[in-house]
Design brief:
This protein is an alpha+beta fold and about 220 residues long. It is built from six helices and eleven strands. It has helices spanning about 25-35, 55-65, 65-75, 100-110, 165-175, 190-215, and strands at about 10-15, 35-40, 50-55, 80-90, 90-95, 115, 125, 130-140, 145, 150-160, 185-190. The strands form four sheets. Strands 1, 2, 9, 10 and 11 form a five-stranded antiparallel β-sheet that branches. Strands 3-8 form a two-stranded antiparallel ribbon.
Length: about 220
């Protein structure tokens, strides 16, 4: 989860819909405002747009079109649906049915006219006939999990000549001031965690080493 930027890393357990650390707000904003930050990012990447048709139950019943029919029509138009398999020696190659490129471009620019076919009907109907509206919404393309919980990681790289502890100290108070709801937690990772583990590994041997040095002296 650390990626290529491992200098100042903050990992947080977040539930879906929480916006404390989404996009450029929250942890990313704190890191970007620090004068010691060279670059920062989130492992959930930038949010992307998606087309969300709002299915109308009354219209769908009159037309004999279900939500599944709308989903299959949109998938067939863009991603394609698997209709069979082709065996080539030991490999099974899926046979995908989807619209031609010109039809896909037309459907993307005028999705209201996308033809939806019901298994109980003879003629297809346009998407606009069975939906209330077609909206564009934002979604997270990548959702990471840690111990089966959703976790978002914000990370930053210090500028040349700036050490990792300096960057961490410059943003530590602002991160500690963040009030997380019950069930949330925040952990420091990256070089800070690696250094801490190395120091903890040396502690058990320090006492015997001091005792031996006293006897030698």
């Amino acid at each position: 989860m650390t990626g290529s930027l491992k200098h100042a890393l903050v990992g947080l357990q977040l539930r879906p819909g929480n916006s404390a650390f989404s996009g450029r707000s929250g942890g990313l904003a704190i890191l970007e405002q620090s004068p010691y930050t060279l670059e920062s990012r989130s492992n959930w990447r930038q949010r992307v747009k998606k087309v969300v048709p709002e299915y109308g139950q009354a219209r769908g019943r009159w037309s004999g079109i279900s939500r599944g029919d709308v989903a299959r029509a949109s998938k067939r138009a863009f991603d394609g649906i698997t209709v069979g398999q082709f065996r080539q020696e030991d490999d099974l190659i899926p046979i995908v049915l989807r619209h031609q490129e010109s039809e896909r471009v037309q459907a993307a620019t005028n999705i209201d006219m996308l033809q939806v076919l019901s298994p109980f009907a003879i003629d297809a109907v346009p998407l606009a006939q069975v939906t209330k509206s077609v909206e564009v919404a934002w979604e997270d393309p990548v959702i990471w999990r840690w111990d089966r919980r959703r976790a978002i990681t914000v990370q930053a790289s210090p500028k040349i000549g700036v050490t990792t502890p300096t960057l961490r100290d410059s943003v530590l108070s602002e991160f500690n001031a963040i009030k997380l709801p019950p069930g949330y937690k925040m952990d420091w990772d990256g070089e800070y965690d690696t250094s801490k583990e190395s120091q903890d590994g040396l502690k058990p041997g320090m006492v015997p080493a001091l005792i031996i040095m006293v006897f030698i002296i």
